[in-house]
Write a structure and sequence with these properties.
Blueprint lengths: L4 H29 L7 E2 L9 E5 L4 E5 L7 H7 L17
Antiparallel strand pairs: 1-2, 2-3
Organism: Ameiurus melas
Keywords: Membrane, Transmembrane, Transmembrane helix
InterPro entries: SMIM26
Length: 96
Amino acid sequence: MPFDGKQWYKRTAQLYAVGTWTLLGSCAYYTYFKCNDRVVLREEEEDVPPNVRIFKSSHMSAKLTYKENFVPYSTRFLELFKPKAENSSGGQNDEK
């Protein structure tokens, strides 16, 4: 039985169409009915240090504690692409 490319392409396109419409339909359903029961809201407390985050919802409670000098990975990555003008030595006059 030879491989029929047109039939395979048609079936694959139908599969992707069903998946896409399912995704769009579920997004529209949750947007319309506003199913926000699972949204976790941050609760502010006055005696909490700045490196501690407390999240509470009706089903759970979480306490995240960051290191004292924590730097996010995204900030570390972006530091690689910042210009190094302040570190360069050369023809610039540093006296003001």
